[in-house]
Write a structure and sequence with these properties.
Helices cover 72% and strands 7% of the residues. It is built from 11 helices and 4 strands. One of its GO terms (cellular component) is plasma membrane.
Length: 309
């Protein structure tokens, strides 16, 4: 039981990171019907910006108060990553919005490769480490086995990740349901042409959607950096594929579905690695995705598209 609870905590933590990235996929798809495959690399850029900002503040400027440092790192990372997200949309996607459906998809894959190689060339291919900054935790349970004692620990870093994810999820739900920007996004999701005729600035709404998704990805990048302490130029591809899988599993186009899918993917990976073979954790995640889509083609919380004729 102790081992199960520890793996459950680890899975919820990893799933929260996947869920934050998956929200960016599902927001963009919900409005313009496009899979932004460069979104995982935006997450990777957010992690690198967070690392660079942290090192500048601590090593160059001499800041020592960790909560203030992390707050500044979070703000700077969100601002710069949001600017990256806006630039990608403005340069790569907007000119192809009226083109055939494969053109934006091919461009998204190309933009992903461009961002990966840009970071590889500018930062190097070696991993970038960061010593643990938030240590300690709460011991929830202790048990004895034949091989020794097992502790169920909830680290402070895991608490921060889970609470941050819950707060951001609640905030974005309120934004979508209660604000004028959220109403504009829902109008564009239903019918962009009609929304434009009714006075909604469609280009601005889509750009802000990319900005919001990129800002969320930067938060996930900072959490990933603080949790694992090592990043490289390739983490965006792997995390992006997992987050896209989470968005599809939960029902792409649904914000709660994206978060639910992220948590499920995290739990599947962690439990499979803990009880079976770590080499096949990805096989398990994608197999369960395929099984779910056979019986629920729209995902767990997705709504089937109704085409009016």
């Amino acid at each position: 039981m102790e081992y199960f609870l520890q793996q459950l905590i680890n899975g919820l933590t990893l799933g929260s990171i996947y869920g934050l990235i998956a929200i960016g996929y599902t927001m963009v798809y919900g409005i313009i019907g496009m899979i932004n495959f460069a979104h995982g690399d935006i997450f990777m850029i957010g992690a690198f910006i967070a690392l660079a900002t942290f090192l500048i503040l601590t090593s160059v400027l001499g800041f020592a108060f960790l909560p203030l440092v992390l707050l500044i790192v979070l703000i700077v990372s969100m601002l710069f990553t949001a600017a990256w997200g806006w630039t990608v949309e403005r340069i790569a996607y907007r000119p192809l919005r009226g083109s055939f459906r494969l053109a934006p998809l091919i461009t998204a894959i190309g933009m992903s490769i461009v961002l990966q190689n840009f970071v590889q060339i500018s930062q190097g291919a070696r991993v970038k480490p960061l010593p643990p900054q938030i240590q300690g935790g709460i011991t929830l349970m202790q048990g004895d086995t034949e091989t020794g004692a097992i502790l169920v620990q909830l680290s402070y870093m895991q608490i921060i990740i889970i609470l941050t994810t819950l707060v951001l999820m609640a905030g974005f739900t309120l934004l979508i349901s209660r604000t004028s920007l959220g109403r504009s996004q829902r109008a564009c999701e239903q019918d962009r042409k009609m929304a434009s005729l009714l006075g909604v600035n469609v280009d601005r709404t889509i750009s802000l959607t990319f900005v919001m998704g990129a800002a969320l990805a930067s938060v996930a990048g900072l959490m990933f950096l603080l949790l694992y302490g090592v990043i490289d130029f390739y983490i965006g591809f792997l995390a992006g594929v997992k987050a896209f899988t989470a968005a599809v599993l939960g029902g792409i186009g649904s914000l709660p579905g994206a978060m639910l899918g992220g948590i499920l993917i995290g739990l599947i990976e962690v439990f499979w690695s803990g009880y079976f073979s770590v080499e096949y954790k990805d096989v398990a995640a994608f197999s369960i995705l395929a099984i779910v889509l056979i019986f629920l083609p729209s995902g767990l919380l997705g709504k089937p598209e109704v085409e009016k004729v």
